[in-house]
Amino acid sequence: MKQALKDCDESLRLKPDDADTLDSRGFTNLKSGNFDKAAADFDAALKLNPKLASSLYGRGVAKNKKRGGSGDDDLAAAKAIEPGIAARMASYGVK
Is 67's pLDDT higher than 80? Predict the structure, then answer.
């Protein structure tokens, strides 16, 4: 996980406004249990691309893990954009 974060940080140093890289770093932080950092990365990605279903879903999961249930609106929005997002994220170990 540390190497993945380093890779994302380097990529963002070179191209700071890349929503997909922010999304990837968010998932790395999410999988590491850094829910606040994950939510911040997903927020930044969504400012660049408000319809990025994976960031909406990830932010919803992060909020639910950290804040006890406040991420349901994000999860619903992600599913509206990409109906199969829950299954795709589950395949990555994100629930």
Answer: no
